[in-house]
Amino acid sequence: MSEPTDPPPLVPGLPGLGRAPVLVTGGTGTLGTQVVAELVRSQVPARVLTRKASTATGSNQVEGDLATGDGLRDAVADVQAVIHCASNQMHAQQVDVQGTRRLCEALAAVSPNARLVYISIVGCWDNPLSYYQVKADTEAVVTSSGRPHAIVRATQFHELVARLCNGARLGPLGIGLKGLRFASCDTAWVAARLVDVALDDAPPAGPVELAGPETQSARDLAVLTAHVRGRRTPRILPLPPVGGAMKAFAAGSNLPGPGAQRGGRSYAEWLADQPA
Fold first, then answer.
1. Residue 273 CB: number of other CB atoms within 10 A?
2. Do 225 and 164 form a contact (C-beta atoms < 8 A)?
């Protein structure tokens, strides 16, 4: 028999009854929208942190600003977990690094037992690219915060690979970095894994790596994208890697290790499902 203080059991037809919400930062972005959708499918109340709430989306939005800390305590009140997807490349130190520190402080103040799940990038510790270093610095903030937490690192999303393939073109020519490969992944699959990590009884023992099912060269991906899009196959001009970041990519710093979880739709499957 349930104790009086226990939450009521879930009732069919009343999704989320008795469950504490999960806060999603960056919940209107490419990955965040998929995380919110996965929480809804899992019948877990989703709360979305946004700087300006809007009723148009139909989601449970709360106003808060990682850059200033305004509203964060109210946003994390009574949550069971936070899935932290928010990022801002233009203001990375203020939003990603310092904003994550503010988020940890808010959790410590009002929801000390809530788990913080941070989405990072595979290879961020092995590449001097400035944004990757921001991701590594933010990981350090999370792990040193004393909060219950999990670090999940993903490879590049299919959406990014598609943009790169569409953007690195000069008419019939394509531009590619010699040696560059991707094991890009499906954001819907990553979202499902993030929700699993957030709701598991215990956090993983260490960082979790996620990657797509295939590893392909940038050239093969460019040819595949052109074929699916009905364009002429570009002639790829391979460029030698110049600088530390490009050399790291060419050496495979963005590729998953042997212990990575691999799954989700392949790039070809994902691309075939996208509107023309």
1. 10
2. no
Two structure tokens written together for 205: 């023992």
> What would the pLDDT profile of 50-74 be if each residue is shown by its tens digit?
987 665 444 689 999 999 999 999 9
The count of domains in the chain is 1
Amino acid identity, residue 200?
D
Residue 124, burial from CB neighbour count under 10 angstroms (0-12, 13-18, 19+):
buried
Look at residue 165 and tell me if it is in a domain: yes
Tell me the residue range of the domain where 129 lies.
22-272
Q: Find the CATH number of the domain harbouring 26.
A: 3.40.50.720
Q: State the amino acid at position 85 in one-letter form.
A: C
Q: Does residue 16 lie within any of the structural domains?
A: no
| Mean pLDDT score across all residues of the chain | 88
Total-model pTM: 0.89
Res 175 pLDDT > 90: no
Compute φ and ψ for 14, nearest 5 degrees: -125, 75
17 in any annotated domain: no
Radius of gyration of the chain (CA): 20
Tokens for 51, please give them.
Answer: 């700087």
* Contact assessment for residue 127 and residue 249, using Cβ atoms and an 8 Å cutoff: yes
Give first-to-last CA distance, the chain, whole Å.
55
User: Alpha helices of 156-186 — where are they, by DSSP H?
Assistant: 158-167
Helix extents (H) in the chain: 30-41, 72-76, 92, 98-110, 130-143, 158-167, 187-199, 218-228, 244-250, 267-272
Site of tokens 């979305």: 48
Asked if residues 249 and 180 have their Cβ atoms less than 8 Å apart, the reply is yes
Residue 6 lies in a domain: no
